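Q: Could you fold this chain for me?
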Amino acid sequence: MQVYRDNAMKKTAVYKWVKRFSEGRESVTDEERPGRPATGRTEENIAKIRQIVRENRRLTVYSIAEQVNINRETGRKILTEDLDMRKVCAKMVPKELTEEQKQRRVTICQDLLDRQDDILGCVITADETWVYQYNPETKWQSAQWKTANSPQPKKFCQS
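A: Sure. Below is the predicted structure, expressed as C-alpha cells.
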C-alpha cells in the first residue's frame, strides 16, 4: 500500500476480485452488460437530419437533435462526420448589383481611365466622411451548414 499510495485498489475491490477468481473467473475484462444500445447514428436519423438541414441551413445542432429526438453530441457527429458538413458564417458584401449596374460601373471606370490626365490635374482634397450602416443580423446569426463543395454563403448589406 505504501508503494502505490493513492493509486492502489481499495480493500473492498480486492476482496471482490479474489472472490470472483476463486469462483472460477479467468478473465479481467468486463462481461457483457444489459443496457440500451447506441441507436443515435442510424441511417434513418442521418436521412432525417439531411432533410432538416436542406429545409433550413441556419438551425443549431441542439434544435436539429431535438427534432430527431437524439442527443446533441450524436447530432453534431452526424452533421460533421456522416454528412461532412460544417457551419460557416456568411461573407459580407456591400450590396448585390444587377448586371446593368455592373456594366455601368465598368463603363464609368473605363471612361475615368481614358480621362485620368485631365482629372488628376484638377484634384481638390476634402475631409473624409464616415457612414455607418446598421445591420440587425449578426455574423453568427447568418451562419449556415454547408458541405465541402457548396459555395460560401453571402450576406448583402441593406441599402
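A (continued): Helices lie at 11-22, 43-55, 61-68, 72-82, 99-114, 116-120.
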